[in-house]
């Protein structure tokens, strides 16, 4: 019973000192229940959010300069970038690396394009010219509605709905010239359990245009986790036990380690995390109150 009281008082010190991350080491004996704490370990969770943009030229891209006065891109392309990254310390690692899709899905084209207003057989250039006329017609109708030249009985919510539909159609027709860009996002998660004798960890590789690739793909830039443990851990305020003390408990004080996530030479995120693998073992005395 006395040992239980001593343990509970020692734990109070851990709660009262939020500046240090403490973990009980060894075996905690509470009556008939024994908890094998062993050596506490920290796990670093890494999250990478990769964005991919895929551009598809418009079907009338080659006629944009002629009928709209602005040149449009004729080539498809795919661009990728690491949109964001984060590091955190967690109690235990997930069973496996996971990926969550969060994508903007491109809708399928309608069977009959909305720019076809009759069944006349037209060449691609004639269709482009007709679509350009529709765009300018929509813009004129919008100005007329706003100025009151037409639609005298259209006002309030009806006017707003009409303007929104004109804007939607104009964007749809413009995309036939200037193309569309579909943005997709996915999350890659990794977990690292650091070793005391190791500070650099290769997570994966990143290649522009493809995103995250395997470690074996040497053409990609290395995504590395670098850990720089503090040279000295602040133990001030802790009730360090005397070597001859009969009542004391062993704890491990986590090391405030600077963790840096790099993609090649580009620093993605830097944060200080308390990691037990690089920590110090101390013996604490119970409260003297």
Walk me through what this model shows.
By secondary structure, the chain is of the alpha+beta class. It has two domains: 2-41 and 195-284, no CATH class; 48-183, no CATH class. The chain is built from four helices and twelve strands, in the order H-E-E-E-E-H-E-E-H-H-E-E-E-E-E-E. Strands 1, 8, 9, 10, 11 and 12 form a six-stranded antiparallel sheet that branches.
Q: How much helicity do the residues have?
A: 10-25%
- Based on secondary structure, the structural category is alpha+beta
Strand elements, count: 12
Provide the number of structural domains.
2
- Estimated radius of gyration: 32 Å
* Distance between the ends: 18 Å
Q: Strand content of the residues, in percent?
A: 35-45%
SSE sequence, one letter per element: HEEEEHEEHHEEEEEE
Low-confidence segments: 1-18, 92-107
How confident is the prediction overall: mean pLDDT?
78
Largest sheet report: 6 strands, antiparallel
Task: Specify the overall morphology.
Answer: elongated
Helix run count: 4
